[in-house]
Write a structure and sequence with these properties.
The complex is a heterodimer. Chain A is an alpha/beta fold. Helix content of chain A is 35%, strand content 29%. Chain A has one domain: Rossmann fold, CATH 3.40.50. In chain A, a hairpin with a 2-residue loop joins strand 4 and strand 5 (67-68). In chain A, helix 3 (100-111) packs across helix 4 (115-128) and helix 3 packs parallel to helix 5 (144-156). The longest helix of chain B is centred in the C-terminal third of the chain and has 44 residues, at 260-303. The chains are: A alpha/beta, B alpha+beta. Bound molecules: adenosine-5'-triphosphate and magnesium ion.
């Protein structure tokens, strides 16, 4: 369902061109669980942003569920992000003035889902994340692990096909980090395609498929063959 | 995004920065309130003046010597000095049936003294008819007596303030005052209740017109007040007066006749223009408020960069982000406008209570115009910050913390 062909991404820095992605070709079937590792500056985040339609490749083709996205209008790309893609960030990015429940509901607000439906879906999601009793708390009243769980709830509330996590445990302690990874894996088990960027080898090793990046290239791409 | 959600989101963002929002609200509301209050002041003044004029009577014509160019006719070729307007001219007008009363008026300044006290006041020379024509009455004593206008008689009716200043609480009736070098007997005191625009009944003394002409050694009248028999006959009276004067002045129409209506409409125009001017000046404060809104929104955008990036990552389009920030700006403007309306109402109420004889009434257009301008300002000055927000690159916005 994800097909990258010869994708490149150049950044202009002053007079120089920085090539953050160089000739990246990658196919990710639905329901895959993929980790992206590599040294700092190797292009992991750039790859994730391209996958999440937050960034456009300078060259190459990116088809998502058969749709060529590189030529789409901004409005259509936003709609795809809304309906098909969920993001989890290292810094959580919760809106500080909104409660946990309201943060989770935000994508549905943007999508124009009516309030009654929003309510029931938020309730469901919070329950599945074990956050029901934190629903009315604002982010500054939550622990780091709880915040990231709220952020995950927000990422999946629209039932996306693709979940992109950029160092989701980077700001968490060991224990909360493991909880968050377990939660993401559980969601993957329910069918969502999961891509995790991480510096943590122990987390990276858990993925069925492990991509290593180096200088904007895909350096290695290992696949477990044991089916789950 | 649904409209209620949009508004709610904008509202919560504004609440998120209460100090900034409140200051903004204040600026906008002061702008709106000042537009309404200042136009109310202008409109109040206009109505006040019109009311005063109408109290004077709408059957009044004023004749002055000299031709006013605006009344038409070719201007004189070489500096023709107008002929004197005389008492006989005035009395001749009475022959016309559409004219009920005529009050010739001669005016000068002169000291008036009683004992050691002296005041310089306006001396009005006229006849008994001056009183009914100008709706002036005496508080005590009598007005000027009915007698031939050419006759001199050393009697005077004093203005109420002049009487106070010369006599304090002493009895003035029957006393002799000195006006210039002549002695006049006080026969009445003017009633201040008859005061109206352009007529101060305090610092003046009324004497017979012939005495005034002798006093000032000036045979020409300053004005002739003409009272038509009715409001409907005012035009007939005007024409008759012109014809009469032309005949008496050897075919030269060297007088000007002003009707109340003409003066009224002049004042009306002036005061309307004045109202618009002050409204415009107050409108500038609305523009200032608009620039403040722009400033506030720019700060809001730069403070919420990562939130904007997030909204985009969650599927918000440029248009949605634009709308969100525009909604905030317009909401600020709208609540500021509402607060301003309230302020204006309270302000008007207070003023109307404090000054009972002068009513602040905003013209009908004032409130809608002020609110409309406020909203438009919010919209116009909100566009730039909202655009800036909408165009933020989500990747960079999210990277910033
Ligand atoms: N907006 C940008 N402008 C200029 N250069 C950029 C921009 N974004 C990324 N780069 C460059 O592209 C390269 C890849 O960046 P990227 O953020 O994808 O690395 P990364 O693998 O995620 O690193 P890290 O592990 O530190 O997060 C880097 O050299 C970076 O400097
Ligand atoms: Mg990165």
């Amino acid at each position: 369902m994800i097909e990258l062909e010869h994708v490149e991404r150049d950044f202009e820095v002053g007079d120089e061109m920085v090539r953050a992605l160089a000739d990246v070709s990658l196919q990710i079937p639905p329901g895959d669980y993929l980790s992206v590792m590599g040294p700092s500056g190797s292009g992991k985040s750039t790859l994730l942003n391209v996958l999440g339609l937050l960034d456009r490749p300078s060259r190459g083709s990116y088809r998502l569920e058969g749709v060529e996205t590189t030529t789409l209008e901004e409005e259509a790309r936003a709609a795809l992000r809304r309906q098909r893609i969920g993001f989890v960030f290292q810094a959580f990015h919760l809106v500080p003035r909104l409660t946990a429940a309201e943060n989770v509901a935000l994508p549905m607000v943007l999508a124009g889902v009516p309030p009654t439906e929003r309510e029931s879906r938020v309730r469901e999601v919070l329950e599945s994340l074990d956050l029901t009793d934190r629903a009315q708390h604002r982010p500054d009243q939550l622990s780091g692990g709880q915040r990231q769980r709220v952020a995950i709830g927000r990422a999946i509330v629209m039932h996306p096909a693709l979940l992109l996590a950029d160092e989701p445990t980077g700001n968490l302690d060991q224990h909360s980090g493991q909880e968050v990874i377990a939660l993401l894996e559980q969601l993957n088990g329910e069918g969502i395609t999961l891509v995790i960027v991480t510096h943590d080898a122990s987390i990276g090793q858990r993925a069925r498929r492990r991509v290593r990046m180096l200088d904007g290239h895909i350096h290695s791409d290992e696949q477990d063959h044991a089916p789950t | 995004m649904r409209l209620p959600d949009l508004l709610q989101y904008a509202e919560r963002s504004l609440r998120g920065a209460p100090t900034r929002s409140l200051l903004m609200l204040l600026a906008m509301s002061i702008g709106v309130a000042s537009v309404i209050l200042l136009t109310a002041l202008g409109e109040g003044a206009r109505r006040y003046v019109i009311n005063e004029f109408e109290q004077l009577g709408t059957d009044l014509l004023i004749m002055l010597p000299g031709r006013n160019e605006t009344t038409g006719g070719p201007p004189p070729l070489f500096g023709e000095t107008p002929r004197d307007l005389t008492i006989d001219d005035a009395l001749a007008l009475l022959r016309h049936p559409s004219i009920r009363r005529v009050a010739p008026i001669s005016v000068g300044n002169s000291p008036v003294s009683f004992g050691s006290r002296e005041r310089e006041v306006t001396i009005i020379g006229s006849t008994a008819d001056f009183f009914p024509v100008r709706h002036v009455e005496v508080a005590i004593g009598r007005p000027l007596p009915q007698m031939p206008a050419e006759r001199q008689l050393n009697v005077t009716v004093l203005g109420w303030r002049l009487k106070k200043e010369l006599f304090s609480n002493q009895r003035a009736l029957g006393a002799w005052v000195r006006i210039a070098d002549r002695r006049f007997r006080v026969i009445g005191i003017l009633d201040p209740a008859g005061e109206s625009l352009g007529l101060d009944l305090g610092d003046m003394a009324v004497i017979p017109v012939a005495s005034a002409q002798a006093l000032f050694d000036n045979p020409s009248l300053f004005r002739v007040l003409i009272q038509a028999r009715s409001k409907e006959e005012i035009e007939t009276a005007r024409k008759a007066a012109l014809v009469t004067l032309r005949r008496r002045h050897d075919g030269v129409g060297d007088v000007t006749l002003i009707t109340q209506d003409a003066m009224l409409s002049t004042f009306d125009r002036i005061l309307r223009a004045l109202t618009l001017t002050v409204a415009g000046i107050a409108g500038i404060s609305l523009a200032v408020a608009g620039i403040l809104i722009m400033n506030v929104m720019l700060v809001a955008v730069s403070q919420r960069v990562s939130e904007i990036g997030l909204l985009k990552a969650l599927g918000g389009s440029e248009r949605q982000v634009l709308r969100l920030f525009l909604a905030e700006a317009v909401m600020l403007a709208a609540s500021g406008a509402l607060l301003g309306l309230l302020l204006a109402l309270v302000g008007m109420h207070l003023v109307n209570r404090l000054f009972t004889d002068f009513a602040l009434i905003p013209p009908l257009w004032a409130a809608p115009a002020a609110v409309g301008v406020a909203l438009a300002t919010g919209l116009v000055f909100g566009v730039m910050p909202a655009r800036r927000a909408a165009r933020l690159d989500p990747v960079q916005a999210l990277a910033r913390r």
